[in-house]
Protein: VOC family protein
Amino acid sequence: METKMIWANLAVKDLEITAKFYSDLGFKPNGTFNADLVSFLFGKDNFIIHFFLAKQFKNAARLENAALNTGTEIIFSLSADSREEVDLWLERVKKAGATIYAEAEDFDKGYTFGFSDPDGHKFNVLYWPSY
Structure:
């Protein structure tokens, strides 16, 4: 058996805010948005993240949604080609309204910072010279 694709499904409070946030960051919409979800493509391989309204997500998963203000379910890493690109991402996500949970810093051989989207989903932007 072979897995053909993998994507992420996340819960959000407001689809319009989510759509604006990820559009402002320059991510490409995945199809047409509807009343239940918005979806975006990430990276050159077009990794898909679907964002569902929290109530629908909880009903579909039959699980409680994570308390993102006190923790996280995953951190998505976005690669950058240089330290300067990391700094440009930092400016861009601040302008879009992200919360910075980790300021830009050297990390081992790389350079990184972390941010949360309007619903608390965590991302980091990382420059690693060997990637």
In short: Residues 28 and 119 are 19 Å apart (CA to CA). Residues 83-96 form the longest helix (14 residues). The mean pLDDT is 90.
